[in-house]
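User: Show me a protein chain along with its predicted structure.
Assistant: Here is one chain, sequence first, then structure tokens.
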Amino acid sequence: MKRLFTLTVLICFMITYSSAQEDECSDRYQKKVFPLVDFQGNVDFGSWTTRNGANVPLRYDVYMPKGDTAALRPLVILWHGGAFLDIFKKTSPDITTMAKDLARAGYVVISPDYRGIRDATDFFRKEDLVKEVVGAAIDGNKAICHILSEIDNGNPYRINKDEIFAGGVSGGAVLGLHLILLQKTEDLPAELVNWAREVDNGAIDDLLVNKYCGNPDIIKGFFSISGALVDTNFIQYSPTAFLHFHGTKDDIVPYDVGSPLFGLTDAPTLYGSKPIHERSLEKGTYSEFYSYENLGHVPFLNLDLLKIIQQVNVVNGEVYVETLEAMIRLMMQKIACEPKKVEVTGIRTQATELSFYPNPAEKYFQINMPESRQWQIQVFDLAGKIIQQNSFNGSRHQYFTDGLAKGMYVVRITDLQASDKLFVGKIIKQ
């Protein structure tokens, strides 16, 4: 398989970053270190109303690493595909597989519902298709707002609010790209603006003014698998980093510019991953493009027309692994990774893991030692540099964090009378 890979980054930064990650980070967030996954299904986050006035609930599923004790974890929101048909759900096999694999690597993954087409004749009416996409984007925003509200009110899934990512497959990628990149309704092609405003009584205007309920830059990275936009002219600089995956033989969502769904519908012309990537680079947005020669829709499934008819040998394991690894590499640039166990030069004893409370800490954290001794405490940043050093007597100590910037630190505590007694833990300063 020939693969064209377009990667746009500052090379010197990437070399430094890759080396630092190898030296400092544990396998957590990079490999599947948790054998089991905790699952919580059908969490209500909103609803939508059909043309007949029926109220349809919106729910999401949550995947988490089972047995994980980390105080906070990165979040990945994944939207499913399915041509915006209401028969495809958040439990589609590609989404559940990806969600479980990411959860095993230590991420929290949420897979939300969004509204879908219930009348097949909508495929032959451009207006109805446009309204379905707008409605789906509104539902996507509802999901993010609900998640952020949960974080601010007890944080039941222990999500790090500064480490939120999202992605979508096919229709889910179309949903996410429009939600992130569209800044105002008037930027849509002129014939689509009025249709967009007829959805949910003009909710799209309020959404774009108050995106993600006042957190417009909350999505740190977006993974678009066979995604597209109705236009690329409205793309401006975005602080969100993008990964695009697309097959050159995609007949369902165009790789370049063209009609979706084999050209059999009245859908608007769509701009695929290639022009989105190129426009993003022009505007200074971080963008990577994995372009797969001779592969069809959703490259790791390779759903070209012939494969859809045959329904054999559709899954490409190599491309799936490459897709997942690329997603993880991008996220590792933006999260506070779990540091490797600290090895202290000249001491050949194993460190005892130590926990702190509260963690994350805002003003101070409490240290509880196993016995009353004279202790030395050292605080390291993730590059291994000593940021602070002090000592205390006894078995309890409150360590004030005034001099620490927000982020993750490694804390090492040693017995000043017995250097073989070593305790190591990590703390997050809010």
